[in-house]
Amino acid sequence: MYPNFLPATIAQLTEPTSIELARQIQRREILTPLRSDAIATAFVQQGVGNPPILLLHGFDSSVFEFRRLQPLLATNHATWNIDLLGFGFTDRPTNVSFTPAAIKTHLYCTWKTLIGQPMVLVGASMGGAAAIDFALSHPEAVKQLILIDSAGFAAGPEIGKFLIPPLGYLATEFLRRPGVRRRVSLQAYADPSFVTADADLCAALHLQLAGWQQALIAFTKSNGYNFLANKIAQVTQPTQIIWGDRDRILGIADAEKFTAALPHSQLVWIPNCGHVPHLEKPEITAEAILAFISSSTV
């Protein structure tokens, strides 16, 4: 029923969108310059139609983050939802550095293998920072850019550089605790009723994969995307900024900062919504994205 690389607890999913996405997760061996062997990369592909859309999840997340949004976008477009290097259900080789540069290299090779044509790149939270970094380095691959409550201006925690043994192990073990993750989820939504047992499971399934702790520590110690703020204004692609007006994770001030920095941008506020419009208000978010793509390709 489910791919065999997913943990056995996948059987406890209850929400139809979660179950359907879990059934569709695939892995593809992606060759990169990062190592001689290919990297088993997890993704979900739905729909047909151009331009293709590629979805990038946030920090310590996975393809499950787009379980409600992806099917709505796939009614009009070929839509790809991938797990970035070091995250989700993508393999975490022991001889690879889990840094933004490595993530970008792996993402480029994945795009070239799976899609190979200009795309609409959608990034949520940390995935937004990854999308900006990718668009700056590979403008030929990105037709339009969509940022959902995006990191980029907001700096990541400075504590990363101090994650030396055993502190890194202790920090990730703390993050693994269900109660800790549930508190983060409650901060992410404006409506706490979205924090269900199914949502908790979707957010934690990837923690059971080999190398989760080591990759998370390595990425955090790299200082993440803290280098990006001064480069954002260099983005040339038409950009849509989608932001929940009750975001308690990043706040709301950065939405205006992105709009001011990006000359070809539009800002869409999602009312009564927290940090994850793609999960809390997927229909409104999909409608905004599809309208933007349509208007930008006329």
Task: Please explain how this structure is put together.
By secondary structure, this protein is α/β, with parallel strands linked by helices. 36% of the residues lie in helices and 15% in strands. The protein is built from eleven helices and eight strands. Strands 1-2-4-3-5-6-7-8 form an eight-stranded mixed sheet, with helices on both faces. The protein is globular and about 45 Å long. Residues 158-164 have low confidence and may be disordered.
Series of secondary-structure elements, N-terminal to C-terminal: HEEEHEHEHEHHHHEHEHH
What share of the residues lie within helices? 25-40%
Shape: globular
In angstroms, what separates the terminal alpha carbons?
A: 41 Å
Low-confidence stretches: 158-164
Report on the biggest sheet.
8 strands, mixed
Structural class: alpha/beta
Radius of gyration: 18 Å
How would you write the strand order of the largest sheet? 1-2-4-3-5-6-7-8
Distinct helical segment count = 11
Strand content: 15-25%
Q: Overall mean pLDDT score? A: 92
Number of distinct beta strands: 8
